[in-house]
Every structure is written in structure tokens, then in C-alpha cells.
């Protein structure tokens, strides 16, 4: 029984339902890739399946558009597999348990994968029908966007002739993206030494921070638990001798860390002062962040005397130097017309680790200007060098730079405003999109990104708005019709 079969536009929703029945979590898209290949073959459309699973489907122009330059429609195949704790869904084999209520399509207890399955469904509906007017089409479906944009990075761009790209991986109807940041991961690794030490052991935890995505939410000035830990250690050192036994913070380089912890040794005489100093520091931080972080807490517990390996003072000094001197958060805002209010360059130290031989800090650097990204990375390299630490760059990906000469954007804006009666919102995003990889490979290229409203993507609460899909599909078709 079809769940979505009666919803208009019927072809969009029935393709979406078919996609939902095929497992397609990141790293597991072979079946969906084969389905898309078969879709094209069945309709005698030229198709290319790349070794990684990327699919490119070509369709000739409709009548009257034969001379128009090609247009690329693009989305990603893979979805984030998240489920509620009581869900028994098996993402490797079960069809998604989709349902619809009022205006919302969702999956019971799991992610829906409308990010980005709805892009595929809309593109398939256009490829499947003769009813829409369009230039020659090159439809690109990439694999594994959600895990480092691996499909886009592996794509053979020689197979794409289009220099007008419509990316359908945005989740907010009425918002049209025109640029995105590039980024890289910067890792600092410091060799450290321990020495046996005795003292009163304290467990100190900084918690209750808001956190957030290190790109999209960096402009909220939320506190970074790792950076705060650096300040606390320095504050304590200015009052008394401490020894570091353990030190950790954060979980992912692209999330603002919400928690950091350490174990310290303090002399017996200093233990009261120690607790007072931590409490004093907690008040300083609470005051600094009173506008946006109401739940910051610094917890401190006396664990009694212990005899353990503690960092040698030279190692501890180097670590505190790094934590206190590395830049944090927003470095520069965009100044270009049309990009006001957008963060240009930022970084987030998301992971801090101390093990037997090394102290590690991992940062996500982002910028819509690649030279700024490398200048910031160079600065981290110099700071690492100052204490004899090693610095490495990983996972470099390019920005999608704003193109004030876009031909598609004014058309899209006008169409949207005619359709909705509201002003289109034109935005850049301070996070990575596949458009960055595409821009870098195809430039000069005109790219826009939009999509129907999807709420709570990447969570089991993900929903897709039916009406928004209807309007967005019409907008896409109208846009193609105007790209003569
Ligand atoms: Zn997506």
C-alpha cells in the first residue's frame, strides 16, 4: 500500500516513497545507486555510474530548448541514519517506516532522509516526464555527502558540461544559498612527559554549555569548554602550584565543545584555596557569558590523596600556553555587499585529549576566502612550533565563493516572489556544502542552492513539508523553463 501515492505532485512523492524503501545510509548506497541507474536505462536515458556509486543521468532538451546551455541538477543519495532509542528499525534492510500527518511526512522513530531524498525525487520526476520545459539536463546524484562529501570529491567533473548548477540540498523554503565556506581540520600534537607525583586529587568538570554546530552557530559566541579550561588552568597557576593528571574536552571537531574536564594534584595546604579559586573563576565565567550561557557550571570534587603520574611542569606549561594563545571563534566577518552578517573566517577547537605520550588539540577551520583559511592555519602552525609541537592539516575542502554576476539568482528571486508574495532571502552559509567542491572544479560556474522545508534533519524527528515540496517543485520547474 502506498503511503504517499495520492499526494501531488504524484510523481515526486511516489519516487520519494520508492527511495524510502531502499536502504541508503551513508556508506551503504549501492542499492540506491543501482536503482537510479536502472531508472535511467528503463527510460533510455544516458547514464554514468562511477566506481564510488555517483550517478550522472543525461536528458536532452525539451522542444525549443535545444540550443540552450546545459543545466546540472544535483543532490546527494546518502542519508544520516538516526533512530529513537526504542526503534527496532534496521537501516541496512528495512524500508523506512514513513507516514504522513497533515502537512508533514516523517518516518516513525527514524530519520526520514528527505535530506536529501526529496532532491532525488524531484529530479527523477523531471527526468521521467515530457511535461516540463528544460534545457539539456545533467543530473548528478552523489554518494556519501554526509560523511565528508566523499562522492562530490571523487566525481569526474569531465563528465559535466553544464556551468549552471541547481543544488537541491537546502532545507528552508524561501532561503536561497549563494555561497559556502571551505574548511580544513588542524591538529596540534605535543609530546609530553609524566613524573610520579603525590597530592590531593581533584576532579574538575566544566559543563552545561550550549555547544552547537561549529560553522552555522559560531556567530552566537557560545562558550568553548576547551578554551575555558585553558583559562581555568592559567587562573589556578597564578595562585598556586597545580599538577595535571588528566585533561580532556569535546567530542567532535565540528561541534563547539560543551564539556571539558581535568584531574589535578594540589598540595594539602592549598586545598581550601583551590576550591575557593575554582568557585571564583566560575563566577567570572558566569558573568562573562550571562547573556547567552545561563547553565555553565564548574564542578570540583576532592578525591583524596593519590600517587599518580602527573605532567612534568614543562609539558604542563606548553599545554597551557597553547590553550591560552590559540585563536577561538570568529576571526573575520564578510564585508562584501550581499554577504553582510555572514561569518567569513572562524575556527573551533572541538577535541582535546591527553594520553600517555601526547597532548592533542583538533580544530575545524572555516572560511569563505581560501587565503584566509590558510593564513589562519599557518598561525596555528606557528603557535604549535613555538612549543615544539607538530601541526598537521587534514580534510581540506574548498569554498563556494559568492558570484554577484549570477544569471540564475535574479530569475529565481523573481519567480519566488511572484509565487509567494514574499521577499526571497539570499544567504551564504558558514559551513561546507557540496557546492564548494563543485564550484572549485567547474569555475566559472553559476550555482544556486534551495529546497523544500525540512525540519530537524539528521534526527528521528525529521519532517518534510508537503506544501513546501509542492511549491519548491513548481519553482524548480519554472526556473528550468526560464533558462533558455
Ligand atoms: Zn543534505
Give the N-to-C terminal Cα separation. 40 Å
What binds here, in terms of ligands, is: zinc ion
The secondary structure category is: alpha+beta
Q: Helical stretch count?
A: 11
**What percent of residues are in strands?**
25-35%
Largest sheet: 9 strands, antiparallel
Low-confidence stretches: none
Overall average residue pLDDT: 95
Which CATH class of the largest domain is shown? Answer: Alpha Beta
**What is the CATH superfamily of the largest domain?**
Zn peptidases
Q: How many β-strands, per DSSP?
A: 21
Describe the protein's architecture and organization.
The chain is of the alpha+beta class and 484 residues long. The protein has 2 domains: 10-181 and 400-482, Zn peptidases (Aminopeptidase); 184-395, Alpha-Beta Plaits, CATH 3.30.70.360. The protein has 11 helices and 21 strands. It has helices at residues 10-20, 30-42, 114-128, 150-154, 225-237, 271-288, 313-325, 370-386, 408-420, 434-442, 466-482, and strands at residues 46-49, 55-59, 71-76, 98-101, 104-107, 137-142, 164-167, 175-180, 182-191, 194-207, 243-249, 260-266, 297-311, 329-333, 343-354, 358-367, 390-397, 425-429, 446-449, 454-455, 463-465. Strands 9, 10, 11, 12, 13, 14, 15, 16 and 17 form a 9-stranded antiparallel β-sheet that branches. A hairpin with a 2-residue loop joins strand 4 (98-101) and strand 5. It binds zinc ion. Zinc ion is lined by residues 76, 115-116, 145, 169.
In short:
The protein has 484 residues and is of the alpha+beta class. The chain contains eleven helices and 21 strands. It has two domains: 10-181 and 400-482, Aminopeptidase; 184-395, Alpha-Beta Plaits, CATH 3.30.70.
